[in-house]
Write a structure and sequence with these properties.
By secondary structure, the protein is mainly alpha-helical. 95% of the residues lie in helices and 0% in strands.
C-alpha cells in the first residue's frame, strides 16, 4: 500500500508539472495578445 501511495503522488506531481507548463504557455500567449492590442490603439 505504501508503494502504491508513493506511485500515486509521483503521478500527480507529473500531471501538475505538465499543467503548469500549459498554463505558463497560455499566460505568455495572452500577454503577447494584450501587447498587440495596445500597440494598435
Amino acid at each position: 500500500m505504501i508503494i502504491f501511495s508513493i506511485l500515486c503522488i509521483l503521478y500527480l506531481l507529473i500531471i501538475i508539472s505538465k499543467l503548469q507548463r500549459q498554463i505558463i504557455r497560455l499566460v505568455q500567449e495572452v500577454g503577447l495578445l494584450k501587447e498587440r492590442l495596445e500597440e494598435e490603439d
